[in-house]
Amino acid sequence: MAVVNTPLITVIVPIYNVENYLKKCLNSIINQQYKKLEILLIDDGSTDLSGKIADEYAAKDNRIKVVHKENGGLSDARNYGLKIMTGEYVTFIDSDDYVTEDYISFMFNLLKQTNFTAPLAICSLINVYGNSGRQKDNGNQTEKVLSGKKCIEMMCYHNLVDTCAYAKLGKKELYSNDFFPKGKLFEDIGSTYKLLLQCDKVACGFIGKYYYVIRPNSIVTAKFSNKKLDLLEMTDQMAQSVVAAHPDLKNAVLRRQVYARFSTLNQTLNTKNVKDTQLKLIKYIKTNKKAILNRKAPKRDRLAYYLLCLGLPFYRYAWSRYEQHKGES
């Protein structure tokens, strides 16, 4: 069967109270070089002007369809988009982010270069630090075709492959019903590995095409609550599934599990009445230190571990200095 040169590609944008960011996001989508798009704006019960802005854009561009639904969370909005999409391929863009004008065409061409034998393409993020406006391309400017297994290993070591749902272009068939775990934070770590497990080939372009805006009070940067422990559940679930399919990736997924504990610990550092949680996290890190002291783990893992061994007060101070530097330099 002949491959269609320009298949319909669905763009799913979950929207919730992002009136200050939404226009920049939507402008970057409607101005894509790849024109044959179905743009699904899923308004997840916004209480600001986001829904109105979405409707205004739909009135100007017949590729845009808006759905206004009761608030169900990010996963629920993405899943809703998957249920109603009609495209052959799908990509996700979060409504407070934006993309380069060749975001979709770049990934589509990666698939084309494999003669469409790869069902998934990925690109890199460009971090945009909200306070300073500083940008950082997370890619290394290379293109290659990798196995899904290799991508999982790289993801576990934070080596170019990201866990995020966005910055990917995949065949619709890769996404099962209720693909994203509803009601969970950090749903990306609980879902992206499922894509990679299905892929013999992944077309990778490690070049920044997706602007990831790091802003105060987002899910990732908001203050600690027990809901943040979802990260541990999602990561452990990923680890169990990956090891069942690829037992030789046990060390890689354990590194990601230890990282999840470090990430959660960092979010508790300025929170009161979390000593028991902190002690459990530190115990897990120290018990599994081999996972972050091996040569494949990022150097920052080893540095963080040695700082933690000097005591939590010292670690807290060092982390605050790092955070301050990361956003301003």
Q: Can you walk me through this structure?
A:
With 329 residues, this protein is α/β, with parallel strands linked by helices. It contains eleven helices and ten strands. Strands 1, 2, 3, 4, 5, 6, 7, 8, 9 and 10 form a ten-stranded mixed beta sheet that branches. α1 (22-30) links the parallel β1 and β2 (37-44). α5 (148-156) packs parallel to α8 (250-268) and α8 (250-268) packs antiparallel against α9 (275-287). The longest helix is centred in the last third of the chain and has 19 residues, at 250-268. It is globular, with a radius of gyration of 20 Å. The termini are far apart. The mean pLDDT is 94.
List keywords for this structure.
single chain, 329 residues, alpha/beta, globular
Summarize the structure.
The chain is α/β, with parallel strands linked by helices and 329 residues long. It contains eleven helices and ten strands.
